[in-house]
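Subject: Interface between my chains keeps coming out wrong

I've been trying for a while to get a sensible model of this assembly. When I model each chain on its own everything looks fine, but I need the whole thing in one frame so I can look at the contacts. Pasting all components below, labels as-is. Any help appreciated, I'm running out of ideas.
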Amino acid sequence: MTLPRRRHGAAPWLFLAPFLLLFLLFVAVPFGGALWLAFRHGDAATGAAGLQFVGLGNFRFALADPLFWQSLGNTLVLTLLAGVPQHLLALALAWMIYRYLGRLTGLAGIVGMVPYVTSAIAIALVFTTLLSSEYGLVNQWLARIGLGPFDWLHDPLLLKLSIAALVCWRYVGWNTVLYLTALQALPVALLDAAAIDGAGGWQRFRHVVLPQLRPMIILALTLTLIGGCQLFDEPFIVAPDGGTERAGLTTTLYLYRLAFDAGDLGGAAAMGWLLLVSTVTLVLAFNLLWGRGAWRRVE
Amino acid sequence: MLRCLHAAVAVFLASSALGAETLTVAVFPKLDEAVRLVLPAWNQRHPDVPIRLMVLGYADHHNRLATQLAGTANVPDVVGIETSYLGRFKAAGVLENLAASPYLAGQLQPRFVHYAFAQTTEADGRILALPADIGPGTLFYRKDLFDRCGIQESGLTDSWAGLLAAGRKLKAKTGAYLVANPRELKELYLHATLKEGEGLYFDQNGKSLVESDRFVQAFELARAARKAGIDARINTWTNEWAAMLRNGKIAIVPSGSWFAGPLASWIAPSTAGHWRVTDLPVRGNAAWGGSFYAIPKQAGHKALAWELIQLLTDRNNQLNALRAPALQAFPALNDAQQDPIFDSPMSFFGGQTALQVWRHAAQATPATHLDRNDPVAVDLVDAALDSVLVGGKDIRAALAKARAQIELRTQR
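Reply #2:
Try treating it as a single job with all components included. I did that and got this:
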């Protein structure tokens, strides 16, 4: 049976117009522009006429540029350094809040979100002050137990750790809320049954809660992976030039500097596309390895 | 209804007419203060042509210009450009040639400091900007700290070895560091040893110079400072750096004369009386920052823009910009440098006639080549220095790698 076709005229398009307009302006046009730029080379200051078609030249340049590879390596290392502790802490925090805070759970969620909604610039300024080698509180505290001083913001390894700590602190609350939401959706009977069977707190968490949280863990890790590949704010404020030996130079920071400091919009656009391909590949690989079944709809 | 429509049309036409006669000036912070100083004179001269100031942060301003100047809409009539960006905008071909009629800026050449005017001029004679203010390079140093060690001013400037020895003595006696970061010493050496017509990172033909002896020696100086432990291992223009300047933990800042403004107004006003300025080591002289005014080719009001630039660079307004406490913009005009204010003692510098030091430096500074790729080279050379200081890499190997990366970026 086929339904009779009804003429709606322009009405559906009018309803769709706000979305289509925003999509065109903020997604399609920038994507198209970035694709156009990726095949052109020249100083942005010369205008569109000064940007010559160079075929795959920008991609060849990016792949031959050691700084691009270093920035990709930095991005991956920072994603792992910030991501792994972030999720371990968030899972533990979510479980503790769920078990012990009762009616205060909502309040804990709000408090956890504060770093996430606070301006990245304010956070980074506070962190750089805390981590200052000469006047920072962190070094003062460490000095009391006979450690340091550490050059948190200039030593290449410590700079990475500092940026990772900043990112971790900023997003741990967000992930806690994600896990808390998933925990609250768990059937209480499951945990009660495990308790009746004699499972302790850790056993219930390990054998009942974690498997049930798997879809949320996969989602949260996927979001962290995507966010990590786009990491810009924190390294830009802590070490705008990438820091000592470019230890804090992420790919997004590098392509920003390439586009705006050096005026090489084409090279930066090509790197942007390569970063997109790397991100999608990573996310797909991660989901193939660990995400099987996680997105399956539960009937 | 019809009346309302007529009124709306009248308002629209009036605002369009007003818009057509607005002079747009795009500058970065501090330079806007210099423009504001001439507003009363401008408004008196052209009450019907208001000036619209567009002020963005230093980097954002130049980024915006990069995409704006080649366009046809919303192009400012007058733009401020900092020295490090001038090479790029000159090469882009988006600035009006002020040597041509009706500007004939070539006639103004004798009025300006030699090196600054030369930086605006291309080999083919085109003049693409006019100097707004200049930054003759000098050493800012804490006299009180060096006095405690018995180190005279000449101990800082007679030789590079003497400067390092002074740093070691200073650290031993007072605990203060000579400089914030060895990058400053590298920059100091690279600037102070430049000769007329040479470029900092590239020669006149755009060939990279980073493997030259000048760079090797600059890196050796920086490495010696790091080994001696006389740098504070911090970055300049950070909160930590400002705190150390305030607390007398850093004794020298190599910089242009413009540094006096921020130092006295917000970085370390409490240290008034302790600072002095002196020439760069080994009688070197170098341009260290500075600003320029230019007219974009696509500007809509070129005649008015030129009139404003002339007003901004006249003797009185150059001196007003110098007198403004937080600005202290050093005049690019030779005539303005003959004003009696140059003989006045400056209280922040313990009564020293610091303006005379800068005037002498300005007059002796060689004209050097600004290359459009200088910002690329700065970045990669700094990374190379890091690999020497932190990674222990061989200097020549680090510079060879830097040159390869510079060529990869610039010769595509």
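Reply #3:
Confirming on my end. The beta strands of chain B are 23-27, 51-55, 78-82, 130-142, 252-256, 275-278, 287-294, 330-331.
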